[in-house]
Amino acid sequence: MRIGELAERTGVSVRALRYYEEQGLLASERSQSGQRRYAENAVDRVRLIQQLYAAGISSASILEMLPCVVTGVAAPEVLAKLRGHRSSVVKQIEELQETLLQLDTVIAGATKTYATGVPCPPA
Amino acid sequence: MRIGELAERTGVSVRALRYYEEQGLLASERSQSGQRRYAENAVDRVRLIQQLYAAGISSASILEMLPCVVTGVAAPEVLAKLRGHRSSVVKQIEELQETLLQLDTVIAGATKTYATGVPCPPA
DNA sequence: GCTACCTCTGACGTCAATGTCAGGTTTCTA
DNA sequence: TAGAAACCTGACATTGACGTCAGAGGTAGC
C-alpha cells in the first residue's frame, strides 16, 4: 500500500511515517518512481511503534529493541535494557494509578460539594 | 524555605520551580530583597504538579484544576474536564498495561531463546 | 490527455518544559 | 568583613516528534 493508506489505517500522519523511516524504525520498498510501498504487516509495526512511544521510550531505544520484539531474540545487553524499560513502565502505571486516585477524590468531593449548593469558584 | 531547599526536597530543578510560578501553578512570598520564600506545603504542591504533568496534563489544564484539587470544589465545566482527564488517564494505564504484556513476551521469549544457545543479533 | 489528488525531498516552524548563560544582588559562614 | 554560595531577572538554546510549506513529479478516473 502507499503511504496515505497506511496513514489512514493506523491513524498516524504521513509526516510521522516518513519520520519513522528516517529514524530507521519503519522500512519501505520503493516504486520505480520512488514512492514508498508498504507490506500489510507495516500496520502492526506502526502500532507497535506508537505503543512504545506512548510508554515514553525514545526512538533510539525503540530502534534498538525493535528487531528483538519482532524476532523474539535479544542479546544480553538489549535484554537488560528491555528489563529497564519494563520497570519504568511499571512505575509509570503505578504513578498514574495514584494520580487516578487523586482525581477521583477531587471529582467525588467536588460533585458532592457542588450538589449541596456550596458556592464554587469558576474556572 | 528558599527555592534551593524546595528544589532539593522535591527533586525538581530551581529553573522548573520558577517556571511553575510563571505559569501560576506555584505561589511564593517574597523577602524584602525579592527572594522567594515557600511554606512547608509547597513541597506537596510541587509533587502534585509533577504528578499531573506525568499524567500528560498541560500546565494550562493544571492551572485550571489546581484550586479544585486543593479546595475540593469545582464548577461544572471544570468537573467535566476533570472527568475527561480521568478517562484519559485510565486509557493511558490500559495502554501501558498492554505494552507491559508485549515487553514481557519479548523478555520471556528472548531469555529462553538465548539460554538455549540460539545465535542472536547484537544491538 | 486532463484534472484532481497523492507523493516526493528539503527545510524551516512549533510546542512545552526545562537548560544554560550573563550580569548583578543577597545571604551565609568563617 | 571577606568570600563563597545562593538567588534574582531576562533571554536565548535545546529536545523530540512531528506540522507545514514550497516546488516538482507521479497516479488514477473520466
Give the end-to-end Cα distance of chain A, rounded to a whole number of Å: 48 Å
How many domains of chain A? The number is: 2
How many extended strands of chain A?
A: 2
Strand order in space, largest sheet of chain A: 1-2
Structural class of chain A: mainly alpha
Largest interface: A-B, 49 and 48 residues
Instruction: Indicate the percent of residues in helices of chain A.
Output: 55-70%
Proportion of β residues of chain A? under 5%
User: Overall 3D geometry of chain A?
Assistant: flat
Order of secondary-structure elements of chain A = HHEEHHH
CATH 2nd-level architecture of the largest domain in chain A: Orthogonal Bundle
Rg over CA atoms of chain A? 21 Å
Report the CATH topology name of the largest domain in chain A.
Answer: Multidrug-efflux Transporter Regulator, Chain: A, Domain 2
Overview of the structural elements:
The structure is a homodimer of 123-residue chains. Chain A is built from five helices and two strands. The first copy, chain A, has helices at 3-10, 14-22, 42-54, 59-71, 76-115, and strands spanning 29-30, 36-37. A two-stranded antiparallel sheet of chain A has the order 1-2. Chain A starts with a helix and ends in an 8-residue tail after the last helix. Chains A and B meet through helix 3, helix 4 and helix 5 of A and helix 3, helix 4 and helix 5 of B. The structure holds a DNA duplex (30 and 30 nucleotides).
